[in-house]
């Protein structure tokens, strides 16, 4: 039997925990003030309580879009205030940790930073919740060991995230590892969310994987929603548009209901 | 949008197709007449219509259990007659193809035989339905090309099966590739079933993956159920017992219902 | 310390064994009588004693070239007679085993047939030497277990072959696994040859890997040489032309000499 | 044809370049002053000019040995002064970059830090040479893109290092990817060295891979040598002792000689 999922509170509200499937939605990247406020408005009206968007984007190719950086954080803070949303956004290394910590409700540590012990130690000293993604080349075993760099500093408000591993199969961007997810749930009591967008890499598969995540018994979703995917500055192939997401969100709620799980 | 799943009929009954989630259940291996008749009785009472069990088991290590062979087929035929079940059982190479074809309703071609063109060609000439498993080292692209060895001979009653690929992650037996599954559904209209037992390798993850398969929109399940898993002659770690399966079957039906899918 | 490599004799000649690095060269596929006799002539003049070419080629896509089949074997027999060469050629399944056994000096079992227990059992009953390739999805452990299907029948004239495994890296066709090669040499005393052509998939890397194989201490090479690679019917990107091969052969001999190894 | 390897100078001496195979040897970790001075003495007497040892060791499990840290750098500086060695040692993140830069001749960026853009940017601004290891989950393509984070800042004294990728094969620690190495040499002119110790994980395979690296045409080796491997504080299974290394060094020199390559 998997362990009972521990509760993660933010501002005294239970955001993650047993029988909660928490949906964190929003665009891959902060692109403009208008984009952020428009999307945050739409998603909060659907019922979404945690908004996601990255603003530090030092991607593999230094010649591609690198993010709105500090300005993006200010726009995210505006979305938090205007729509009562919680914000999750990503730190990539020590150089932007303090800013991300200041502006976010959940500090996201991306897959590529999972092996950065100094960054994890820093996150372990924070009073903010932390979402730690599994590196696409990390075994479950290594992932749960790196997690200890956070918890040994006293921060136990950690959300885990399976976002796809790198395998020989290249028709999808990565390979979502639900088997590994089952092992993680067996070995720890931290909530485990799924990232269907980065693993699949094609929007057509995202609703399938998202519904599967609910029925699997995951702790939630980190999902890319863009008001105009074709013109997104990054990861345009994998984002759902708002209508697609609204439909999916309803389907997920119905599945959750049959299982006694609140999807929100 | 994924393609509409084509219908696979056996004896004029629609066993696979759009909005059908077909559960094929039974033990990994035929062990004895009693085991087969007992399990077939229990499963048919739950509502299962297709019974699975392998009787030719030339496993990787030639010094392990090799199966009940022809005798096993006779017992399976008895189960078919007594309980009105359809039988799916595995052929491993040309040496046992004719026998398997004679006794089964669906000829299963296992992962390790996926690259055997002579065997696939032979199956293509059969009037029986064929379930072709994806090899754990095969890309989706290769899998769908090998499929043509069957269809070019005129047999279009083919069921595909994702049963886990081999990756660096070793905490599960294989890595169930639902991303690849989404690609397969996008590219073909053959029903795609999931094997949660072989991919996970630990029974604790099997209900999670099975429920996920329904919500994903797969075409069914090939799942190991044993009346006494601890004493199973093969794959004892991954089989559900009959009570565990009964509970899961009910959960899957409920999930299917919210989606307009009949789980049977 | 690795084990002492056992000697494999053919017609009372030691073709493989300790301190022998055996080069088996020739085209991927038999294309025509002229091609075979021309290439065999050239290679035998360089000193090559074992000629390779496949004539049963049921490749992944059934719509591509499928080989010269029985006719090809007759041309290979002609090359053997004219130039005193030994012949290695591939059987893909039981349907062509007897013919391949009759015409070849070494029966090659390709990677895709490694998991075929009936074929391996048949090869185990043959009096001919067998080269068993490692499947690109097989662990070393599985490979050495499948090997027992041959040896338990009494045939110990087996040559192993590492030809690349399937990994996430797609800039080469496969990933040559020399680490796995070292493990194989530690665990068995069968000669282990390397296939640099299939693993690399690009001719520019083939000389590098081939020289590496000598210095590594492998038991030889299975290498693709074509008189006109650009117009080869299969695997045209990875074959060396005859001049490139002649240069490489000389380099390998020099490296072998410093190590007390005869490259031939 | 692969590109001509560019020359990397340190203190006006050509340490890496066309027809140079550069051996960087030493223990995995700095353990004590005695250990460093003893090993440095022995290796410099053999002819080694670049000494390797890590002193910041925040490994995956935070409860294992974490390194001698700043004290280790002081001992390495002593070894440099006493034996005229160049020093290569590893930075793991921004928290220890400045110290490593100050004390080393070559700044090593380990596999786990390859995806850290802030660290690479910092290294790009240094006047010291940088060795950038390929992450075990990185494609060649990503690796060469991340490299640009260093070179776009103006630092072109970069040495690349293939140290094994993560694959399904677990009998070795990682899988040394020489095919990927050939692609790297085709696409760039930076020297590419091989790490046989981390890839293999067992000392018995290290000489095989090291000799292979010379014959392959690599630009050198980063190899673990320990005066007493059984009692090493980390990676004890994969280090050669000094006698084993001396024997290997001689063999590599002989192979290099036949190819017009200076091994030193």
Mean pLDDT of chain A: 95
Quaternary structure type:
homotetramer
Number of strands of chain A: 11
Low-confidence regions of chain A = none
The shape of chain A is: globular
Structural class by sheet pairing and helices of chain A: alpha/beta
Intertermini distance of chain A: 25 Å
The topology string of helices and strands of chain A comes to EEEHEHEHEHEHEHEHHEHE
Describe the structure concisely for a colleague:
By secondary structure, chain A is α/β, with parallel strands linked by helices.
Write structural notes for this entry:
The structure is a homotetramer of 264-residue chains. By secondary structure, chain A is of the alpha/beta class. Helices cover 39% and strands 18% of the residues of chain A. Chain A contains nine helices and eleven strands. In chain A, the strands form two sheets. In chain A, strands 3-4-5-6-7-8-9-10 form an eight-stranded parallel β-barrel, surrounded by seven helices. Chain A has a two-stranded antiparallel sheet with strand order 1-2. In chain A, strand 4, helix 2 and strand 5 form a beta-alpha-beta unit. In chain A, helix 1 runs parallel beside helix 2, helix 4 crosses helix 5 and helix 8 runs parallel beside helix 9. In chain A, 62% of the residues are buried. Chains in contact: A-B, A-C, A-D, B-C, B-D, C-D. Chains A and B meet through helix 6, helix 8 and helix 9 of A and helix 6, helix 8 and helix 9 of B.
């Amino acid at each position: 039997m998997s362990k009972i999922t521990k509760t993660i509170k933010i501002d005294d509200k239970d955001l993650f925990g047993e029988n909660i499937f928490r949906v964190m939605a929003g665009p891959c990247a902060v692109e403009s003030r208008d984009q952020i406020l428009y999307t945050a408005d739409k998603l909060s009206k659907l019922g979404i309580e945690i908004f996601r968007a990255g603003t530090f984007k030092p991607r593999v190719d230094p010649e591609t879009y690198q993010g709105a950086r500090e300005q993006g954080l200010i726009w995210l803070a505006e979305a938090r205030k205007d729509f009562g949303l919680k914000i999750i956004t990503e730190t990539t290394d020590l150089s932007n940790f303090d800013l991300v910590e200041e502006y976010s409700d959940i500090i996201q540590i991306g897959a590529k930073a999972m092996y950065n012990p100094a960054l994890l130690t820093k996150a372990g000293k924070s009073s903010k919740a932390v979402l730690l993604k599994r590196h696409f080349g990390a075994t479950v075993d290594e992932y749960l060991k790196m997690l200890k760099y956070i918890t040994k500093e006293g921060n136990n408000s950690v959300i885990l995230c399976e976002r796809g591993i790198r395998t020989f199969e290249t028709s999808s961007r990565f390979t979502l590892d639900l088997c590994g997810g089952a092992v993680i749930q067996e070995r720890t009591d931290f909530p485990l969310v799924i990232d269907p967008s980065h693993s699949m890499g094609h929007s057509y598969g995202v609703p399938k994987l998202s519904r599967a995540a609910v029925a699997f018994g995951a702790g939630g979703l980190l999902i890319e929603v863009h008001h105009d995917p074709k013109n997104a500055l990054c990861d345009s192939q994998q984002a759902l548009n708002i209508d697609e997401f609204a439909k999916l969100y309803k389907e997920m709620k119905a599945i959750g209901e049959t299982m006694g799980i609140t999807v929100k």
